[in-house]
Amino acid sequence: MKGMQITRHWLLALAALGLTSAAGAATLSGSASYRERMALPPGAVFEATLEDVSRADAPATVIGRARLEPAGNPPFLFTIEYDDAKLQPGHRYSLRATVKNDGQLLFTTDRSYPVLQGKGDAPVQMLLRRTGDGAAASGTALGSLPASFEGTLPCADCSGTRWHVDLLPDHSYRLRIAYDGKPDARPFDEIGTWTLSQPPTILRLTTGQSEPQAFALKADGVLTKLDRKGKPIASTLNYSLKRLPAYAPIEPKLTLSGLYRYMADAATIQLCTTGQTLPVANEGDNAALERAYGDARSAPGAPLLVSFEGRIAERPPMEGSGTRATVVVDQFHQVMPGAGCETAPKASPAATAATLQETYWKLTQLGNAAVTASEHQREAHLILHKDNTRLSGSGGCNRLLGGYALEGDRLSFGNIGSTMMACVDGMEQEQRFLSALKDVTRWRITGQQLTLLDAGGTPVARFEAVALR
Prior knowledge:
30 strands; 8-stranded mixed β-sheet; mainly beta
């Protein structure tokens, strides 16, 4: 028995280095772990699967798997053997992993881990998320999914905030917060992943970039919001969301990013926030995204990181009946060759949402064009000071001074003046910057990104929060 354990450890170590293979078979190596400091039950089983996820309208096809039985404790080092003759050009492959005990799901990956992308297959490192008491807890405590929950919660400067949460079986969620008594305030939309743990039964919603929203799940199916520390809120006011009689999905509208692919006259995107792979509707600004993708892709069907303003809407599938979640591109931003979701900049938990005022906002984009700083010149930026609603900044050549008016999500700039220097480079960009500020009517912050919009809701300028200097 002791010899078997030593052999197993050596095999796992070799697997992590990608050094094992079986005759006539290809291998893919990796490791998986979780953040919790806890030991697994003696009978827990770890399993990793290599899957073909090319078809968005069909279940994934498993083409290889590896099991550790018993699982032991993390990190779990594994090697999957598969027949490389089964790989098809243009198809997409991904890794998944689970830890189960007596059939109950304890840990699982909640995002996709793309592999076999022609870049050399270094060992993959996966992060497992805890699911509490497993699949039984998710299915029984929450009831059948998908489901929608609604309620009106307190608001500091309005008559109430109306919360709507959609929970989907794939552990993704959609959230909308609307502001009663503020007809000009746009709803706040968010997507992410949910987890359920017990006891007590607590639902957590997270975007992966901020502190989770936490709710206690009551016996009657009501979700009661908890404070930032996961504790009950001491108040006589309502903090509960009730399950609706029928699933009533919202269409969240927000800035989206993900790995976009176009092939065989169809587009799909793997969203960075949730890991979902969804079809992309051939409407809105998808034509611009498709053209930019075609110009930047390295090969047909190669994934490219893209960003855009968009929606997740219900649309009829290409085959079959009913509807399915589909991404609609409203305003294309950019294609980012060579980048991936794992390397895309994310807001830190300590600074998940920058504030509009007293933040150094570095200009990054005007319309659909990226902004560059000329050599030996300051970067274009704005600072909206609280005192006397005063504005300062730079257009890249000249210093900017002026004022602004702020009411809710309404924003306008006035009396903007500048120094009168003439620079060799950057003057045309500075003039476009000043012209864009005249068109601003609204603002929106997502994490550390500020978007200024015109009266039609079109983004005219984008900024990135930088430490105030």
